[in-house]
Amino acid sequence: MDRAFALAGSLSAFLAVAAGAFGAHALRARLPPEMLAAFETGARYQMYHALALLAVAWAATRWPGFSVRAAGWLFIGGTVVFSGSLYLLALTGARWIGALTPLGGLLFLGGWIALAAGLAKGGPPS
C-alpha cells in the first residue's frame, strides 16, 4: 500500500504542477480574477496533499495500520473533491459546483486526523 500512495502522491504532484502552469499561462487572460484564484487554490491544495500522500507512504512503512492507510485514501478523496470542484468551478463557471468544495475540505481534515491517530497509536517505529 505504501507504494500505491507514493505513486498517487507523485502523479498528483505532477498534475498539480501542470495545473498551476496551465492556470498561470493559459487561463490568466481568459478567466476573471476570482475564478483564476479558485483554480490556483485547487492546484495549491493538490500539491500540499500530494506531499501528504508521500508522507503517508513513508509512514505506512514505519507505522502500518488502518489509520495511516485511511489517511491516504482521505487525502486522495479530498484532492478529487476539493481540487476537482475548484477546477470545474473555474473552468465552467457553474457556481453550484462550489458547494462540493467544503466536502473535500472535510476529507482533507479527516485525513490529517487519521494520520495523527495512526502515528500516535502506531507504537515504536518498525
Mean pLDDT: 95
- Measured as a percent range, the helix fraction is over 70%
Q: Class by helix and strand content? A: mainly alpha
Shape assignment: elongated
Helix and strand sequence: HHHH
Question: Count of helical segments?
Answer: 4
CA-based gyration radius: 16 Å
Low-confidence parts lasting 5 or more residues at pLDDT below 50?
A: none
Distance between the termini: 16 Å
Number of strands: 0
Main pleated sheet:
none
| Percent strand | under 5%
3D structure, described in words:
The protein is an all-alpha fold and 126 residues long. It is 83% helix and 0% strand. The protein has four helices and no strands. Helix 1 runs antiparallel to helix 2, helix 2 packs antiparallel against helix 3 and helix 3 packs antiparallel against helix 4. The longest helix has 30 residues. The radius of gyration is 16 Å and the shape is elongated. The two termini are 16 Å apart. The model has no long low-confidence stretch (mean pLDDT 95).
How do the helices and strands line up, and which of them pair or pack?
Layout: H1 2-27, H2 33-62, H3 66-92, H4 101-121
Helix pairs in contact: 1-2, 2-3, 3-4
